[in-house]
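Researcher: Next sequence.
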Amino acid sequence: MPKIELYADALYGFAGKRYTEQGLEEVFPCAKAELDGSDPDEGILKVELNDTNRPDLWSTAGLGRQLCCYETGKLPSYSFFSTADKPQDYGDRIVEVDPAIKETRPFIVAFAISGKGVDEATLKDLIQTQEKLCWNFGRKRKSIAMGVYRSDLFTYPIRYKAVDPDTTKFVPLQEEREMSLRQILSEHPKGKEFGHIVAADRLFPFIVDKDEKVLSFPPIINSAEIGAVKIGDGHLFVELTGTVMEDLALTASIVACDLADAGYTILPVKVVYPYDTPFGREVVFPLYFQQPIQAKVSYIQKLLGEDLSAQECVEALSHMGVAASADGSEDPLLTVRVPEYRNDFLHPADVAEDVMIGRGVATFPPVFPSDYTIGRLSAEEHFARRIKDIMVGLGYQEMMYNYLGSRKDYIEKMHVEGNEYIRIANPMTENYEYVRASILPNMLESESVSGNAVYPHKIFETGKIARLDERDNSGTVTKNCLGFLISDREAGFNDALSHISAIFYYLAKAYDLKELDDPRFISGRCARIFSDGKELGLFGEIHPVVLESWGIQMPCAGGEIDLDLLLAAKGEA
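Model: Next structure:
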């Protein structure tokens, strides 16, 4: 979960009141936050945010805004936002997008600010906000990268273009020499850290002004001159590049609102695209793009277990900084205007959650359960434990794995098409992008880092897998499964078969084998397992191509058995 450090005086300034540490602990639940520590000598507070769906809270201004709304019920107002049908005046502040950038890093949003010179606290918080948003919300700069520049050192229009990485050169931050974009990837610290994002592209993203002065090589590093913001700078330009327009627009709105709350004037910027985007070809940022959401008061009452009136719901939402209105029907319908700096209202349940927090969780009286149940192990768990005893008796060591993984591990290294794998729509990182449909990749990953352990290696896991399945109403099916793997110089089909036979022997269940064609296994040395006419699983020798993908030098054999079908076949379900 995100952790931030902030100056206590700055937080209290945004919140409109001072708090003791105990007072902060009492009020922080409105922001799903906890006080993680403090440094009274430096006036620093350390705060941990316990939710990732509110990136607007990852800054001093954002957290202070939430505290102020919660205490007063006053709604913040920002007049600088454009809408689809009413753009704000952008003057000569224009960003022009090169058609060639579409295939590399297609979107850019921007705005400018003016006002007092930034002080140390404001600059540190801006840098921290930039890092948190780009790292957590922007998937380590892959989908969002942000740059801040000294706008009095360049001339509009700004140009966002795609360039040759070998011939394009500039002086990056933390350097005094001119370097090509390709050199930056291999020699600059930030290039080494983030270069993988663009390394495979033929052209790299680049930002210059009207006179070809360099602003940035996004998402890697700013220029050493225009991109080196210092204490005292009062005229700044903020740009964000990435792959998802809505996320970029929201991030720009968050930063703009934070700086507006800090006393700066927000200056709109128009971005001109030569291709279609979700917001059109000419967009003025900051942009209010969120759509209102509705929820029945009766639905909120049912979800929260409290007979709340429409007015009580509206007042509770105002303490979360959310404007809402109710119609006059018998079962009132709430219409919620999503704040400019939020985009986390996906369902009426989200409205109910804000009503709950805005009213105060402690105001809901506890209700003693009216039903009593006695906990006991399910039949599936009893059966899984029996399988575990058999596997341990066969000399296997039990493993436990995550149910989420990457496309590279689950699909590419296994040399399968992956049509049945469930992909998460908005993963925080590509390492947890897919739900596993097989246990074999997890065990091969373990084997890939166990080359120095004494052989033979025999590992297993009983756990859940999930697959896409159109026959189910949900479109997916979840199964309990046994996965096992043997690795040794002589490991092969017969070893795996002997252990399959032992499992079915101890379960007093007959089985048959049929031919299997699966790219994960060596053809002719693998089989499908059947019992009572139902396919229960498969096993065989792992294909050398798969082993090579994992960097495994020793032969391996393994397989999987559907425990739910096996349990049903035994008549114990």
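Model: The two ends are 40 Å apart (CA to CA). The chain has a mean pLDDT of 93.
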